[in-house]
Specification:
Blueprint lengths: L6 H11 L2 H5 L4 H17 L5 E5 L5 H8 L3 E6 L2 H13 L6 E6 L13 E6 L3 H4 L4 H10 L1 E12 L1 H7 L1 H22 L1 E2 L11 E2 L3 H10 L2 E9 L17 H15 L10 E8 L3
Parallel strand pairs: 1-2, 1-4, 2-3, 4-5
Antiparallel strand pairs: 5-9, 6-7, 8-9
Helix pairs in contact: 8-9
Length: about 280
């Protein structure tokens, strides 16, 4: 990673983006499946009575899932706007009593939270992708506040999987005079200097080897890993009507979950979801 993290820019982006972040995970079939896969991973590793820090929690989609699972959740996010939406959505779900507090904090500095205080730290939705060159600091902080033997659950945008999923529009940009920027992004993983017609936040797209090594270096051992959207990556042929039957949708999600955890698929979905356990000492 060569791009430098600027917290003010990231905060401004998510403050402006606002409620769009809440809507995003229901905005397309691909995103709905992505949401289901993340929820399945959280349900497997977080349960009743767990003390959870959700770092970079955003508008509350996963806060609500963690609270419904019986966890006691502490929420933090860099964006005050996202925190406000989070608080509102949690209240609407009737789960305010499951959240211990909402804190404005950057994942590269969790100093307000005590060491070893949480059974699990959840940092999903590509939050780590946004901190660029400061990923080691962010992971060090996330691991520090996790108790020995506790779990760290992170998800990041997948470099090769996203290239696979968005190949047609990416090639159109490359053929429209942006080949150098696209080539640099694919090589480095840093998404910067690309004009896609909408505002883009500078971010980093990971390989699994890169994320695995970063978690290991931070003092963790890998407990589980999954792609997201290996089967359901954006495709013109995947009409949502094909999954309108609830039984078909249930079966498809089961197929997707199995495919996403296959060793050869981890780098092939839009996101990589990793669960790591903090080592003692």
């Amino acid at each position: 990673m060569t791009a430098a993290y600027d917290s003010a820019t990231t905060k401004s982006f998510y403050n402006t983006w606002g409620a769009n972040e809440w809507d995003r995970l229901e905005s397309s079939l691909e995103n709905q499946i992505n949401y289901r896969i993340h929820k399945a991973m959280l349900a497997e590793f977080v349960g009743p009575g767990d003390a959870v820090l959700e770092a970079g929690a955003g508008p509350g989609r996963f806060t609500i899932e963690l609270a419904r699972a019986g966890a006691q959740v502490t929420v933090c996010d860099l964006s005050d706007v996202q925190l406000g939406i989070n608080r509102e959505k949690v209240a609407e779900a009737g789960l305010t009593d499951r959240v211990t507090g909402w804190h404005q904090a950057d994942i590269v500095d969790l100093s307000r939270f005590p060491s070893g205080a949480y059974d699990a730290v959840v940092c999903v939705g590509s939050v780590l992708s946004c901190v660029l060159d400061r990923v080691p600091e962010a992971l060090a902080e996330i691991v520090r506040v996790t108790r020995p033997g506790g779990v760290v659950i992170v998800s990041v945008t997948s470099r090769h999987g996203y290239l696979r999923a968005g190949l047609a529009p990416i090639l159109r940009l490359a053929g429209a005079g942006q080949l150098a920027a696209i080539d640099s992004a694919v090589t480095s993983g840093d998404i910067v200097g690309i004009n896609a017609g909408t505002e883009l936040l500078t971010t980093h797209f990971f390989t699994w080897a890169e994320l695995r090594d970063a978690l290991t270096a931070a003092g963790c051992e890998i407990a589980a890993v999954s792609a997201s959207n290996f089967l359901s990556a954006e495709s013109a042929d995947l009409d949502p009507a094909l999954l309108a039957d609830p039984e078909v949708m249930e079966a498809f999600v089961r197929w997707e979950l199995e495919a996403c955890r296959a060793p050869g698929a981890v780098d092939g979905g839009t996101h990589i979801i990793a669960v790591a356990r903090r080592l003692a000492g």
